[in-house]
Amino acid sequence: MQPANDEIAQLFENLGALLEMKGDSVFKIRAYRRAAETIRQLTFPLAQAVHDGRKLTGIPGIGKAISDKIHELVTTGKVQTYERTRAELPAGALDLLAIPGIGPKTAMLIGAELGISSVEGVEQAAADGRLAALPRMGQRAADSILRHIRATRSMGGRTPIGDALPAAEAVIAALRERGPETALLTPAGSLRRWEETIGDVDLVAVTPNPEELGRALTALPQVRETLVNGPRKTSVILSLDRPSKAQDDSAPGLQIDLRTGEPGAIGAMLQYFTGSQQHNIRLRDFANRMGLSLNEYGITGIESGQMETFADEAAFYARLGLPWIPPELRAGMWELEAAQQGRLPQLVEARHLRGDLHIHSDWSDGSDPIETMIEAAAALGYEYMALTDHSQGLGVANGLTPERLAAQKQVLGELQQRFGLRILAGSEVDIRADGRMDFPDEVLAGLDVVVASVHNAMSQDSPTMTRRIIRAMEHPSVTIIGHLSTRLLGQRPPTDFDLETVLQAALETGTALEINASPARLDLRDTHAYRAREMGIPLVINTDSHHHSELPGGRFGVAVARRAWCEPRHILNTLPLSEFLRFIQTPKPGRLRIFQAAGAAPSGGNV
DNA sequence: GCCGTTTTCGGCCCGACTGTTTTCAGTCG
After folding, report:
1. Is the pLDDT of residue A230 over 80?
2. What is the mean pLDDT of residues A84-100?
3. Number of neighbouring beta carbons within 10 Å of residue A155
4. CATH code, domain carrying A211
5. How far is the CA of A135 from the C1' of B22 (A)?
C-alpha cells in the first residue's frame, strides 16, 4: 500500500512539531511545515511520481533533503530521521499539541514534569491543580487550557462551507440591519478562499464606529458566547444549525472573528486576513526582496521606514508589481509565479453557466414537479437543462423503470413547447457493482444526457472500483460521471480508486466529469478537478438539485472550479446550446475534439 | 531545510495577545 499524499504531509507536519519540541532551528521546522502544506495541495500522487522517476525538487518548498525523505518513505515505508526523533521524545506528546493554547514548549513541559501524554490527562491535571503548579504556568493559564479543551470538544472540528457560508451571510445581513453604518463588511480567511471546510469565519469591516459594530455582533440572538470584545477585534461563538450533523448530540458551534480597519488602509487588512498563511509568507518573502515589508496595515520601505496604505487589495498587489490575485488561487502554490508572468487564469464565474445537467424531480427522489424545476432553470437564464431522475436500481430513491422513463420523455416533449430553454431527456443511471449500467443499452441510447453514478457497493477495493468506473466510462451512451468519489463532507469518506488511471480513461473515452456543486458533496474536489483540467478532460458544474430552491446553488461548484484554476473554456456547460448539442451528438471519443476546439486543450502539468 | 534579477552562503513574515513577568516567552493566525 503506497502512502497517500495526506499521509506523507502528516509525517512532515509531525516531524516539524517534534523538532520544535526539541528546540531545533525554527527555519528547518518552517521548511517541513511548508513542505507538508504543499504536499497536501498537490494534484497528483507523490508515491506514483517517485515510481515514475519524476523529479520532486521543482515543487515549491521541496529541496534535496525532503525529496530524499519522500523517496525513503515510498521505497522503505519509513523515514529514519522521523523514527529516531520520535523515539527521543515522550510518547503522546504530539497529541497534546492538538489542544489550542498548548504549543511545543508546554507539551514538553507537561510530558517531562507530569508524565502526561494524553488530552484526558491534561484535563485532569488542569482540574486538580498540578498544571497550575508548573513553572511559568499559573491558575489563569491552567483555567484557559481547560476552557480550550472543553470548547474544542463541543465545537466538533471544521465546519463544511455549505454550513459556514449561510451562517456568515446571516450574521452579515443582521449586522447591516442592526449595527452602525458600514462601508465594507465582508468575509475574509478560508471562507473567502472558498475552502471546502472552514475553521473560524473571519469578517473584515470598515465603519466609523467599530465598538458599536462589535457590540452589535455580541448581541445577535445566535451568539452563544463572547470570547473577545476589544476595540478592533471581536470574537464570538455562534450556535450552528447544522442539519448535516443532526445525529451528533453535541451542539456544534462556529467561531466568528470580526476585525475593523480604517477606510484608506483596508486593502492591506483584507489581504492579510484572507491569507492563506502560505500565500502571505511567500508574498512577504517576495516583498522583502524588493526592499519592502508587509503587515496588515500597509507596506513599509525597509530602508525608509515609510509606510504606505491602500484603499483596496488591487492597489496593495499593484504596489508589489502584481495583478490582483483572486482569493481562490491564494494557496501558496504556483499563483505568485503565474501573477508575475501575467499567466493568471480568467476564472469561470456563475454567470458563464448556460445549463444544468443533473436535476431531479418528484418522479424519483426530488420534491418538486418537473415543471417547477424547469421554471427555476429558465429563471436563471439557462439555455438548456437535463432532467436526470434516478434509474430503477435505486429503489429507495423511487428510481424510474424503462417504462416510466419513456413516459417521462413524452412529458418532456410536451413541456418543451411551453419553455424557451432546451429540455434534454436524461437519467442519473446507477453504475452497478460490476460496472454495468442500470438500464439496457437501447434505453440509454434514446437519452440526450446520461449521468452515470456510483450509489452502492462503495467499500470496494481500489482495483475493483477503478475497473468499475472505467467500464462505465467506456459505455458509448455515458455522457458524464456524476460525483466521482461519492463522499459526503464530514459524513462519508470518498471511495478508493486510482485517480490517475480513472482520469486517463475519462480522457481516452471522451467522458465528462461532474463537479457536483451540492455543498454536502463538492465532488470532484478541488485538487482532482485541477488535475482533470490540466489533462483536458471536459468538466461539468452540476447542482444535483432535488428542489427548485437548489438550482441557483451552483456557486459552490463554481468555487471548486475556480480553485482548480478553471476558465470558462474548461467547463462544458458554459458552451452555447448549439455547441453543446454538437458535443453530445458526436460519438465518443471524437466529441472531445468539439470541446477542445472551444479552447480547452490540455495545458500540461506544473511538474 | 529551502532558496537565489544582490547571493551556492546567509538570509529566512509579522504582529497581537496572554500570562507571567520587571523585559519576555509562548502561542496563534
Report:
1. no
2. 85
3. 20
4. 3.30.460.10
5. 17
Q: Quote the domain boundaries for residue A417.
A: 366-597
d(C-alpha A67, C-alpha A72), whole Å: 9
CA distances to A363, A366, A412, A427, A508 from A390, rounded to whole Å, are: 9, 10, 16, 6, 27
A168 and A227 both lie in a single domain? yes
Q: How far is the CA of A253 from the C1' of B12 (A)?
A: 38
Measuring alpha carbon to C1', the residue closest to nucleotide B19 is A141
pLDDT of residue A47: 93
CA of A8 and C1' of B16: distance in angstroms? 33
Rounded to the nearest 5°, which phi and psi values hold at A387? Answer: -85, 125
Residue A254 lies in a domain: yes
pLDDT at res. A305: 84
Query: Based on the domain organization, do A534 and A475 belong to the same domain?
Result: yes
pTM summary value:
0.91
Instruction: Identify whether residues A142 and A260 lie together within a single domain.
Output: no
Residues A491 and A548 in one domain: yes
Which residue is listed with cell 465603519? A207
Scanning every strand, the nucleotide with its C1' closest to A15's CA turns out to be B1
Higher pLDDT among residues A305 and A453, named by residue: A453
- Asked if A257 and A235 touch (Cβ cutoff 8 Å), the reply is yes
| Residue A89: partners with Cβ closer than 8 Å, 6 or more residues away | A18, A21, A22, A108, A111
Whether A146 and A166 map to the same domain: the answer is: no
